[in-house]
Design brief:
Rossmann fold, five-stranded mixed β-sheet, 11 helices
């Protein structure tokens, strides 16, 4: 077995053991947070043209005018191509004054400390679009990956659009080189910043709203997140707030739902660990309100 195969097997077994130890299917019983990062934040966007406010929110979370941002465009087809590199302009328009690009096609290079050293000072990292398998082929389990984890631990933010959003999850959708292949035998492990989750993108635009069920039939313990083009969520801990567009939440373990699909709109907040809505976009909690979250002040939400 190759080094990549051993690493993928190890990460997959680790994720499986974590899911088993944290409880049965459905809402997790692990120490909070179950899904998102204990510190820092994540932004996952669904591809296509994003509202400038999404990039502005990313830069704000990274420190505003003091933000030190690294763009990773490796999901794109080639160096300097349109796919993946236009985020440079968007991030600059959003106020990023300190911006660096980190890019390689070599897993060995990505595992070198000097290459990953740009992440030592970073407060935010943005993965732009393309194909998610290019990201995991290069960075999964490397020194670059470890430094990304440390960035979150010190309170930074990691964002991703399209392929960059899918790669944030523990289960990687569309990891094969053929984009129509929903589940890839070779690549089904993502970076794991969102644990126990699979993320799809371009949801309604490309007619993918029912394809997550294929994944959940195989991996029923997963929580599915589907992002339409232009949609985005910001995740802090286990709380996900929709900051633009429409987002689908898939949970086939919900015994009270005839159709295990919930649609969220801008402003809605969803608890990814407890698998329940917290607030609607109007600022009012949905009915009935769980006691554990119903009194939480909106100012503490993402």
């Amino acid at each position: 077995m190759t080094t990549r195969g051993l690493r993928t097997l190890f990460l997959g077994l680790t994720a499986a053991c974590s899911a088993v130890s944290s409880g049965d299917l459905g809402a997790q019983t692990c120490v909070q947070p179950c899904v998102g990062p204990p510190r820092g934040a994540l932004i996952a966007a669904g591809g296509g043209r994003l509202d400038p406010a999404i990039y502005e929110r990313f830069v704000e979370l990274a420190g505003g005018s003091d933000a030190r941002i690294v763009l990773i465009p490796t999901a794109g087809a080639q160096y300097g191509s349109h796919d993946g590199w236009t985020a440079i302009d968007e991030l600059r328009k959003a106020g990023a004054e300190h911006l660096e690009v980190l890019h390689t096609r070599s897993e060995k290079v990505a595992d070198l400390a000097p290459f990953a050293s740009a992440l030592n000072w970073a407060t935010g990292v943005w993965f732009s679009g393309g194909r998610q398998w290019r990201l995991v082929d290069v960075y999964l389990g490397t020194e670059t990956h470890r430094k990304l984890e440390r960035l979150l631990q010190r309170g930074g933010v990691i964002g991703g659009n399209s392929a960059g959003a899918s790669a944030l999850a523990s289960f990687l959708l569309r990891g094969g080189e053929y984009n129509g292949q929903i589940i890839s035998r070779e690549r089904s492990v993502g970076f794991g910043f969102l644990r126990g989750v699979a993320v799809d993108q371009h949801l309604l635009t490309r007619g993918r709203e029912n394809e997550m069920f294929e994944v959940l039939r195989r991996e029923p313990q997963l929580l599915g997140i589907g992002l339409d083009e232009g949609a985005a969520v910001v995740v802090t801990g286990d709380l996900a707030r929709v900051i633009d567009g429409r987002v689908a939440i898939y949970d086939i373990t919900d015994p009270e739902s005839l159709i295990p699909l919930r649609w969220l709109d801008t402003g809605d907040v969803y608890d990814l660990g407890a698998r329940r809505a917290v607030l609607t976009g109007t600022g009012r909690p949905p009915a009935p309100v769980p006691d554990s979250v119903g009194s939480e002040p909106p100012s503490q939400l993402p």
